[in-house]
Amino acid sequence: MTSESKTVGQYTEKELIERIASIIGKPKRRDILIGIGDDTAVVKGSGDSKLLYTSDMLVEEIHFDRSLISPRTLGRRAMAVNLSDLAAMGAEPQYALVSLALQSSYPMAELEELYAGMVEMGNRFKVTIIGGNLSSTGSQMVIDLFLVGCTSGRIFTRSGAKVGDDIYVTGTLGGAHAGWLALEAYGNRAEKTYAELVKMHQEPIPRIKVSRLLADTDIVTSMTDISDGLSTDLTHICSASHVGANILWSQLPIHDLVHDFENMTGADTRLVVLDGGEDYELLFTARPGSAKALAEIARRARVPITAIGRIVPRNSGIRLVEGEKSSPIEAKGWSHFGAGNR
Amino acid sequence: MTSESKTVGQYTEKELIERIASIIGKPKRRDILIGIGDDTAVVKGSGDSKLLYTSDMLVEEIHFDRSLISPRTLGRRAMAVNLSDLAAMGAEPQYALVSLALQSSYPMAELEELYAGMVEMGNRFKVTIIGGNLSSTGSQMVIDLFLVGCTSGRIFTRSGAKVGDDIYVTGTLGGAHAGWLALEAYGNRAEKTYAELVKMHQEPIPRIKVSRLLADTDIVTSMTDISDGLSTDLTHICSASHVGANILWSQLPIHDLVHDFENMTGADTRLVVLDGGEDYELLFTARPGSAKALAEIARRARVPITAIGRIVPRNSGIRLVEGEKSSPIEAKGWSHFGAGNR
Question: Does A202 have pLDDT greater than 80?
Answer without folding.
Answer: yes
